[in-house]
Amino acid sequence: MLVKPRTPTPFRPLQTDTQQLINEERAKQASAKRIISMSGVGNERYGKKHGPRSPGVKIPGSGSLTALTAMANFLIAALYKFVHLPDFESLQAPLLERCAANGVKGTLLLAEEGINGTIAGPSEGIAAILGHLRGDPRLAALVHKESWSEKMPFYRMKVKLKREIVTMGVPNVHAATMAGTYVKPGEWNRLIDDPEVVVVDVRNDYEVSIGSFNRAVNPCTTSFTEFPQWVSEQSAEGGLLHGKPRVAMFCTGGIRCEKSTAYMRTQGFDDVYHLEGGILKYLETVPPEESRWSGECFVFDERVSVVHGLEPGHYEFCRACRLPLSAEDRASAHFVEGVSCPHCHDQHTPEQKQRYAERQKQVELARQRAERHIGVRVELKKAAKENP
């Protein structure tokens, strides 16, 4: 079904030198300052003890959390924008170089349909990268969401070229012009409290498993590419979406909902809504006593999960399968740090488990020496290529 494109409701806010970088990293290791822990498993949780007050800068386009109020060392910026970037490949190298020069790490995805990702670093470094991006007129209106971490939540910087900035695998779904109606966090409760509204969590099953909104339906997908099939199945007679009811959708930061609501409109759904700024903006701005959220929100970095106020949660990564682990999971007989957990203990071969165990051994040795282990090998390989 063809849908007439429309302008969606505006989204409002809510190396240089490789050897030098390696030397700087070695100096950090030697002084044991701002050491990035190899493993979140069994480690001191992020945010239990806040670091010194950051000097702080106010970054235009950000949410209400600023460096003026943060009590941590690293600013995290989550960002995305659907916009036509036919020359996206040429943006990769300058962006990667800027991030390296400003001590910024994380992952950014570039595609013809826009930009998406999360980065972290000193507040001044994040400001420099956002300024660089917004220097492109097409990204001048780029907005981002902020949070803070006592530790650097990423091990390296990656700028990847993709076909889509969020992969659905369906052609001609143009989120920039076809997305559903934005609903601000302060108005979200009233919408999802309506029993006539179908509330859909468009995240993957492992994300939903640790927290979601009351009344939300879990499509039980393992990949966003499975979402169109779920819509098709539920649109049949007897399904949740039969008769094209009003639908409210949400995801972590908002990007998957922009594309999912655009897809729903191509399928003939007229009354489709999505949470502006995603779960993260809701947890940042809605008081816990008014919240319809239960549990924690999975995030794609070393914090693993966050709660209200975007404070660090209580989950940790399994280093074998990357699924979030609760305290109960870590108490299981199937949990072996760095090797297996209740979710994956029967999914790996003995050879794989042996490799994981050896890796964990190196992690523990690095931890005892107050050194970083993850990410170092990649950086050294890169240095060897650039400086033969």
Helix coverage percent: 25-40%
Question: How many strand units?
Answer: 15
CATH topology label of the domain at 41-161: Alpha-Beta Plaits
Radius of gyration: 21 Å
Gross geometry = globular
Low-confidence stretches: 1-60, 62-71
Describe the largest sheet.
5 strands, mixed
What order do the helices and strands follow?
A: HEHEEHEEHEHEHEHEHEHEEEEEHHH
Which class of the domain at 41-161 in CATH terms?
Answer: Alpha Beta
Mean pLDDT: 83
Q: Numbering strands along the chain, what is their spatial order in the largest sheet?
A: 4-1-3-2-5
**SSE-based structural type:** alpha/beta
CATH architecture of the domain at 41-161: 2-Layer Sandwich
Question: Which secondary structure elements does this structure contain, and how are they paired or packed?
Answer:
Blueprint: H1 18-31, E1 74-82, H2 88-101, E2 105-111, E3 114-121, H3 123-134, E4 144-149, E5 157-161, H4 175-178, E6 181-183, H5 185-192, E7 198-201, H6 205-208, E8 211-213, H7 227-235, E9 247-250, H8 255-266, E10 272-275, H9 278-285, E11 293-295, E12 297-298, E13 305-306, E14 316-317, E15 324-325, H10 327-330, H11 350-368, H12 376-386
